[in-house]
Every structure is written in structure tokens, then in C-alpha cells.
Amino acid sequence: MSTSLEHMQNTHALDNIDALRQSVNNRIGIREDVEEDELIYQMLQASHDIKDLFASSFGPRGLSKLIISPTDDVYLTTDGKTIIEEIDVLHPVVTSFKKLAMSMDRVCGDGTKTAVILASSLIENAAKLVDQGLHPTTIIKGYQLALSKVYDILDYETIRIYSDNDLHSVIENASLSKSIEPQQARIIADIVLNTLLNIRDIHAEDRIDLNDYVKVIKKVGAPSIECISGMILDEKPSRYDMPDHLKNANILMINGNLKFESKIINSQRNIRFDGFDNSTLLLEGQMKALKIMSQKLIDSGANLILCEGDVDESVEESLAKHGILLFKKLKIRDMEMISKATGANIISIKDDIIPHDVGFVDEVQVKKRNGEYFLFLSADKQPISTILIWEPFRYALEKVEEAVDDAINNAAFILKSPLVVKGGGDIEFVLSQMLRNYSSTVEGKEQLAVIEYANALEEIPRTLARNTGLNEVDAMTTMLNSYNKGIDCRIDLTRKIVANNPPVYDSANIKQMAVIAATEAVSNMLRIDQIVLKKS
User: Fold this and answer.
1) Residue 506 near residue 460, CB atoms below 8 Å
2) CATH of domain 33-159+422-531
3) Separation CA 270–CA 149 (nearest Å)
4) Which fold has domain 231-387?
5) pLDDT per residue over 483-492, tens digit each?
6) 3-state secondary structure at position 147
7) Is 82:67 a contact under the CB 8 Å cutoff?
8) Distance between CA atoms of 490 and 500, rounded to whole angstroms?
9) What is the tens place of the pLDDT at every residue in 2-38?
10) pTM of whole model > 0.85?
């Protein structure tokens, strides 16, 4: 009987393993070893699918993707990193594109879709060349020659900007890439520009970290975007009888609880509290300790106290009587940002409070909106800012937050290296035309790879034109005519090809990184000559 039961358990376990193996195989999409012609077909098919997925969401008029994850989480996004993260496929080529997208997001925080669309186009064009008889190593060499020339051309086409108006253009263009409305993009650009100009003279690193200097709060409600120099917390006061508006406030920040702990009066644990006298002693000691604690806070001169832990009711009552505003159970991350914005030190109640520990905030306001309480700490001319986003739907909130994130990342690059290139598809079109001219100087079959590299670059403005609603052939013809006349032009939101005046700019560094990352990813894929499945 036991042998039969054991056999059934083993059979069930094997069935589970087979089901798991089958599930993994379905996600990989490969049933057997792949090599030679079948390998380039696998690359072509995967690249084509990825390109279709990304291209339709590219640019200001790109469409959103509704993604339902295996855990039934729903995403409505145009963000390249989010789209490719949620693709539940383990195919080696798809995995390579995922790594490309993740590396671009990690290094730049933007340029993900540009890099992936370029890489997928390079794979598609490489497949054509393989069909014509070119060896992958020849294609790789041609692509590397093209990359080197593109790098030189980008360096020549790069413009150094000096005015805030040009910086505003870069930020606004980055926001528009998330398919938000132009009016929203302008508001975001105004906010981010003002925020980062405050940081410019303070921050010494190459890239400004959004989490260190800018807090973004998303809430469902009537659509609006607002920003303050300082902090906004979605927290309510400890008591309703505390003040809700303070001018020129002194702020004290406490780490840990503001509550009675028995070890304060009985650290040696040598008193038993089982009698009336001893219980009275405990109560008196507790009240004394809490009064000392409350008086210590009052004597600090602070009229706003922020506590990371819990606070005893008697301490709350005492602070309220003295007109002191108290917030408790705050996130330590928020307190660290407030510390930067106000100059207040985060201390323990056991520490001696010195004047240096107390910070300053220009204005404190407690407001109630849509049934929620908010604390507004306005600190002028400080590097910390908070952006509060209101949208009627949760999905729209994600889109606006992505736009803010891209705007800040682009502005951070420009602040450290104020180098830009012409946007709206102009720089990619110029690169493609110059590469075609350069290809005539390349000897051997590598010339064909350089031409296909130029075709892949042209796919960027073609995609922008298609998503804007233009006929891509007509759009490319118009851009070519302008290029031959020496006129800078771009694909505009008005569904026209217009002169790039006033200019629209993109970050030169992000463009360079996108081209380099895409080319290296494709070169690595073309070096693969066989996909071998591990035999079980």
C-alpha cells in the first residue's frame, strides 16, 4: 500500500515537472537547437515583434499599451522600460532587447524606445544582408564603421545651449514623448526647470537623482499639477485642535517614539509593580517622564514637530495647548528630504536639543483636499521640491509621472553637459543622409552594411511621421527637400513638416548613448551562430 502511494506521489511530481518544463518552453518559444538560416529568422521574427510593439507608442502621438501581467496587474503605459519588463518571454533575442532597455533606463532614464527601435531595425536590415550572402562578421564591421561615423557627425551637429528657454525646450520635448497633452508638458517643463535651476549650483554629481531632490505625489482627483520649493506630505496632524497655518516656523524632527518606556524609571528591573503603592509609583514615574519629554520639546522653540515614531496622547495634548503642530509615524525617507530642505537635524528625544538641531521653514499649511490631509512645507531657495499630480484616473497618473521622470532625467543631463541636438526626428534624418554619402567612401561589402545602418536610423523619423498621422513617404520626401536646401526641419505635432524654429532640442548625450547601446547589442546578437537548448 505504501509502495503504491509512493509511486503515485512520484508520478504526480514528475507530471508537475513536465508541466513546468512545458511552460518554460512556451515562454522561450524554441523547441530545438537553432542555427544558421533558422537563427537569423528567429532574430528577425523577434526583432519585428518588438519593433511593432515599441514603434506604435513612440513619440508625442504614440499610443499607450494596456498590459496585463501574469499576476493580473494592469499597466497603461507608453514607457519603453515598463513595456519590455512585462513581456513574459524568455527568447534569447527578446532577453537581449530587455537588457538593452534596462541599461538605457539605468544610465539615462530615457531613450529606451529610441535604442530598441534602432536595434530592431538594425537586426531586420542585417537579415536582408544575410539573405544577399553577407557574413555576419562583415555586417558587424560595417555597423561599427557606421557607428564611428555617426559619433563624429553627432559631435559636429551638437549644439551648446546657454539660455533657459533652450533648456525649457529640452524638458518639454522629453515630457511630450510620453504622449501627454502639450499644455501638461509645458506645465511640467516650467516646474522641472524652476526646480532644477535651484539645484544647479548645489549638486556636484553627474546626474541628479529624482529620489534625492524631487518628491512626486500622485493622487486621484480633478486634473492639475502643482509644485512647491519644499515638501508636501499626504499626512494628517496628530490632533485636530492643532494650528493649521504657520509663518516662519521652527521645525524639530524626532527619530523614534515619544512615549513612556518603563526602563526610564526601572532600568535595573528590581521593583515589582504588583501592589497599589508600586503601581502608583509607576504611574507617577510615567507622568513625570512624559512631562519632562513634553517640556523638552516645548523649550526647543519649535512650533512644528515631525516624529518618525508614535507619540503618547499626553504629549500630544501638551503640545496642542502650546500651539505646536505635530505629525507622527512619518516615513524616514520623507524626514531625510525635509531635513535637507529645512536644515533640521533628525535627533532622538534622549539627545540634548541645541539651536543647531532646529530647522526653519517659510510657511506651513495643513490642507484637506478630496477627503485627504496634506502638509505643505514651503522652503524658498532650497534644493528640495515636491510635485503633486492630480488626475481623474489612475492610469493617467502613471503617464504623467513617467513624463515628469523623463523631464527631470533629461534636464539633469543638460545641467551638467548643456549639449543638445535637433529634435523632432531631424537629427536621425540628417545622420541617415550623411551616412549614405559616407558609404560611397567605404570599400568592400561593408558599404552595404553602412547603407542599411542609415536606413535603420531613418526609421526613427519615419515612425514619428506615421504616429503623427502623416504619410511617411511624403514626410521623408519633404524632409529630404529641406535637407538639400540646408534647412533644419522637424515632424511637428501639427501633423506637418516644419522648419525647426523655434528649435526643438533633445539631449545629445542621451542620443549618443542610445546609438552606441543599440549598435553594441545588435553586434553581440549577430555574433551568435547557434542557440543550444540544454537537454534534461
Assistant:
1) no
2) 1.10.560.10
3) 82
4) GroEL (3.50.7)
5) 999 999 999 8
6) helix
7) yes
8) 6
9) 555 454 544 544 444 344 334 334 444 444 545 556 6
10) no
